[in-house]
Design a protein that fits this description.
Blueprint: H1 4-8, E1 22-27, E2 31-37, H2 57-73, E3 83-93, E4 102-113, E5 116-125, E6 128-139
Antiparallel strand pairs: 1-2, 2-4, 3-6, 4-5, 5-6
Length: about 140
């Protein structure tokens, strides 16, 4: 299990934009599983939406991207690099994510060619899919 300090040794994001709390397991270059506990005091709930807090879908996608970045950037040859979004494809949001939810974030790298790759990404809460899609990344 990797905590925030360990995650910060792999990916460059920092609070308040570090969107994963812990990594349960990862296989460098292949996959990662992480968790994000959605707390009532998250910075984005002030405006999304007052009185009806819902985690923005784009931040669920970012949480998944950071999980995938752990898999890619933990490879020895990628240390010190950054993984940028190249695209989001087939992303579907199936369940609202609200305070108290624990997001399970799973990313499997399904294709790589040079510095470009694609990860199959699934975010779930209590075994129910909240979001699913493909994330294209570029290593820089």
């Amino acid at each position: 299990m990797l905590g925030k300090e360990d995650i910060e040794k792999i990916i460059p994001q920092r609070d308040p934009f570090l969107m994963i709390d812990e990594v349960e397991n990862y296989i460098p270059g292949e996959s990662a599983t992480a968790y994000k506990t959605v707390r009532e005091n998250e910075w984005y709930f002030k405006g999304h939406f007052p009185g009806n807090p819902i985690m923005p879908g784009v931040l669920i996608a970012e949480s998944l991207a950071q999980t995938g970045a752990v898999a890619i950037l933990s490879m020895e040859e990628n240390k010190g690099k950054n993984a940028l979004f190249g695209g989001i494809d087939k992303m579907k949001f199936k369940k609202q994510v609200v305070p108290g939810d624990v997001l399970k974030l799973e990313v499997h790298i399904i294709k790589r060619k040079g510095p470009i790759g694609i990860g199959e990404a699934i975010a779930s809460v209590d075994g129910k899919i909240a979001a699913k899609g493909e994330l294209t990344f570029a290593l820089v």
